[in-house]
Specification:
alpha+beta; 7 helices; four-stranded antiparallel β-sheet; 3 domains; 414 residues; disordered C terminus
Length: 414
């Protein structure tokens, strides 16, 4: 009959009603006590005045009155009671020593009763108005939320329809815009996954087709042993290519798992120094120069270290791959104008084609080894960390500059 939220509202309303009724009862009782106390005080003063003048006792109309209480006063004590006569009239009687004073308070009791009824009616009216207002307000509050819920129900994995913010109340604009931003990221992620799936399929299909065709030709007639060896060698090469594709696809899965790592505080400069030592040895073994210029001496950031390592390693691997022998590679860092740490890897290679989307999956440069997923993974890692990544050609010569901009506190966005 009632939803959980409705039961909560009903309980709140019942508690509110009980509190209002208790307040009303307390108020009426206090009001009645105040009127009686005022009357008792006046009658007491009259009794004292009569005692001073030597007044006679005043007989009470009730044969056996019952005193309701005794109240101490400065010069003595007095007692008072309420009684009703045969005609139903209410009387207030005050006894002070041998002086008894009586007053008919029927009319005042009627006034008090009318005031109590009025207060009670106002209280009931207030409760009804509160209930109606709560019901109307609850309905007005539910309607925009139900409208937003209807928009969300129309969203599916095939149609990520955006919420029309302008059709919602202003109070829900920020929530709707946040949901739309999330839908945009989901849409980009799904699109990237589809592109990756299609690219991986093509990358695997080509070497498989080559292997199949070469084997079919080889089986058409008997061949010399050398031809069999060449075919087996070609098959092994194509299998290595497919293994590389599968390995990079698996790396994507590992990287997506790393996106859920809890950020930890690390000195980024120390991480860069370690990478510099490792790749300096590789560069020397290939006859290439490796230069390191790291500033400042320390930069503490809350990061996902696995993702950062993947990005820096990809930058340095690409620089080593495309830089000719005898040329140099630079790893540098500095604080930019916005107070963020910028990490740059500068090479003297062939540069990039700025007309292409170099972060697209399976985008390869020349005849170099690899399947073209490195920068795609680096971009995904940077987006997950809330960092900015870019690759551009050098203006002072051949080569490219790969850069990463880090804040002191990074947040996982996916």
């Amino acid at each position: 009959m009632f939803s959980k939220r409705g039961l909560v509202n009903l309980k709140f309303f019942l508690v509110f009603t009980v509190l209002i009724l208790l307040f009303t009862i307390s108020l009426t009782h206090t009001l009645k006590e105040m009127v009686i106390n005022v009357e008792v005080e006046e009658l007491y003063k009259m009794a004292v005045e009569m005692e001073k003048r030597g007044g006679d006792d005043i007989e009470m109309s009730c044969s056996s009155p019952t005193f309701l209480g005794a109240t101490p006063e400065r010069d003595g004590e007095y007692e008072y009671l309420l009684e009703s006569d045969k005609d139903g009239r209410d009387h207030l009687v005050v006894r002070h020593h041998n002086i008894v004073v009586e007053r008919d308070i029927t009319d005042k009791n009627s006034i008090i009763l009318n005031i109590i009824l009025l207060i009670f009616m106002l209280t009931i009216g207030l409760i009804i108005l509160t209930f109606l207002y709560s019901h109307i307000l609850s309905k007005d509050t539910r309607e925009p939320i139900q409208q937003l819920n209807r928009y969300l129900e129309n969203i599916s994995e095939k149609e990520l329809n955006k919420i029309p913010v302008e059709k919602l109340p202003e109070d829900l604009h920020l929530l709707a815009e946040t949901i739309n931003d999330l839908l945009n990221r989901v849409e980009v992620f799904i699109g990237t996954q589809k592109e990756l799936f299609i690219g991986a399929s093509h990358e695997l299909k080509t070497p498989l087709a080559v292997i199949k065709l070469k084997n079919q030709v080889l089986l058409m007639k008997e061949r010399a042993p050398k031809e069999y060896i060449e075919t087996i060698q070609l098959t092994n090469e194509k299998i290595d290519e497919m293994n590389a594709v599968v390995s990079d696809v698996l790396n994507i899965g590992r990287q997506e798992s790393a996106q859920f790592e809890s950020p930890v505080e690390r000195d980024v400069i120390k991480i860069l120094q370690k990478k510099s030592q490792d790749f300096s040895l590789l560069a020397q073994s290939q006859g290439k120069n490796f230069i390191t210029l790291l500033q400042p001496d320390e930069f503490i950031a809350s990061i996902q270290e696995t993702l950062l390592n993947h990005i820096i390693q990809n930058f340095l691997q690409n620089a080593l791959k495309f830089t000719p022998q005898g040329k140099k590679i630079e790893l540098q860092s500095y604080i930019n104008e916005d107070g963020y740490l910028t990490i740059e890897v500068i090479d003297e290679g062939v540069g990039i084609d700025e007309k292409q989307d170099i972060f697209a999956p399976f985008n390869r440069k020349g005849n170099k080894s690899g399947v073209g997923l490195g920068l795609f993974l680096a971009k995904s890692a940077a987006d997950s960390m809330g960092a900015k990544i870019s690759v551009k050609n050098r203006k002072d010569g051949d080569g490219a500059i790969a850069s990463l901009e880090l804040k002191s506190k990074l947040v996982c966005l996916l």
